[in-house]
Design a protein that fits this description.
Elements lengths: L10 E7 L12 E6 L5 H9 L17 E6 L3 E5 L10 H17 L3 E9 L6 H12 L4 E6 L6 H16 L8 E3 L8 H17 L5
Parallel strand pairs: 2-4, 2-5, 5-6, 6-7
Antiparallel strand pairs: 1-3, 3-4
Bound molecules: guanosine-5'-triphosphate and magnesium ion.
């Protein structure tokens, strides 16, 4: 497969939205980052775009509370979403987030791939597996990004990805695209950009509109 090595010529904050209805209406391909609070979504958006401080990050979970759109190369959107499963917010607040996230995923017509981020250090967690199953049931195309690879020895990281794959194959017939990353060391980001560029190209070749 050819390597495109997409260059980031521009990465611009577009808008924060509280509801999917308020999201920008440009009909360009969109890719979103989702996952548990604190998994590293916002950090990885900064690493992938090579723009420090573009997305707001925090050591405290629950930092991103809105749908944040970033316009990349004036060609596609990269979207930062609030994390799911943060135990320390009230039940009603959690329901608000869940509604915001599911409303966005199910209604955003130009969303071509949902990158689900998983902390590579952990054994498969019920909340993530259930979320992926929900994606499958609703026909949402997703990929998996393992984060914080710098916190593990390479062999241990590989072994955890292998265990994760085995667990997924108990439920799924085939594995989704998977990426291993570190926002800290900026590793794995080129592979994500290649994937996005190839998907964009496929959409262009097939004249897919939204
Ligand atoms: P919410 O917006 O609260 O859902 O969190 P988030 O998923 O956007 O996480 P965020 O990017 O804010 O990062 C959470 C914490 O993890 C911060 O302290 C980051 O510095 C740290 N972090 C994120 N990515 C990495 C990584 O690749 N390596 C290491 N070592 N730390 C990371
Ligand atoms: Mg965030």
């Amino acid at each position: 497969m050819p390597k495109y090595n997409m260059l980031i010529k521009s990465a611009i904050f577009e808008k924060s939205s509280q509801r999917w209805q308020d999201c920008p209406d440009d009909k360009i391909p969109e890719y979103a980052f989702i996952g548990r609070s604190n998994v590293g979504k916002s950090s990885l958006i900064n690493a992938v775009t090579n723009h420090k401080g573009l997305a707001k990050t925090s050591q405290t979970p629950g930092k991103t509370q809105l749908i944040n759109h970033f316009r990349i190369n004036n060609d596609w959107f990269l979207t930062d979403l609030p994390g799911y499963g943060y135990a320390k917010v009230s039940k009603s607040q959690r329901q608000v987030f869940e509604k915001l996230i599911t409303g966005y995923i199910l209604n955003r017509k130009n969303l071509v791939n949902l990158f689900t981020l998983i902390d590579i250090r952990h054994t498969p967690q019920k909340i993530d597996l259930e979320f992926l199953e929900w994606c499958g049931e609703n026909g949402v195309p997703f990929s998996i990004i393992f984060t914080k690879e710098d916190k593990m020895k390479p062999n241990a990281a590989k072994s955890n990805v292998e265990k994760y794959s085995q667990r997924l194959l108990e439920t799924w017939e085939e594995l989704p695209p998977m990426f291993i990353t570190s926002a800290e060391k900026k590793t794995g980001t080129d592979a994500i950009l290649d994937f996005i560029e190839q998907t964009n190209q496929l959409l262009r070749d097939n004249k897919v509109g939204f």
